[in-house]
Amino acid sequence: MKVLVTGGVRSGKSRHAEALLGDGPATYVAPGPTTAEDPDPDWAERVAAHRARRPAGWTTLESRDLAAALATPGPVIVDCLGTWLSAVVDAAALWEAPGAQVHAHVDALLVDAVAALTAAAGPVVLVTNEVGLGVVPSHRSGRLFRDLLGTGNQRLAAACDEVHLVVAGRVLRL
Question: Starting from the edge strand earliest in sequence, which strands make up the sheet with 162-167, in order?
Answer without folding.
Answer: 58-62, 26-30, 76-79, 124-129, 2-7, 162-167, 170-173
